[in-house]
Amino acid sequence: MSDITTELEAAAFRRLLEHLRKRSDVQNIELMTLAGFCRNCLADWYREAAAERGVEIGKDEARERVYGMPYAEWRALFQKEATPEQVAAFEAAQKRHP
Hints:
It contains 6 helices and no strands. It has a domain at about 5-25 and about 40-80: SMc04008-like (SMc04008-like fold, Orthogonal Bundle). The chain has about 100 residues and is mostly helical. It comes from Mizugakiibacter sediminis.
């Protein structure tokens, strides 16, 4: 992979994080239902990529990188209780997004 490709992918990832931080109204359950991944998935993938390169990053540190603040703080500020409709849609989506 070329340096420019890596730079472009990194820029796109940073923009995705910025977008998700601005869209705190979009709940993780909604992301999981529609896209099959959420902010926590991104944090897990970030940790996995670090581990593959011999860099140890904790779960909390990875989530803070994705959320832009400590996860507990984000949850307190933005996370809402999932509605029965959201839960039903999520469960149905699990069949599409294994």
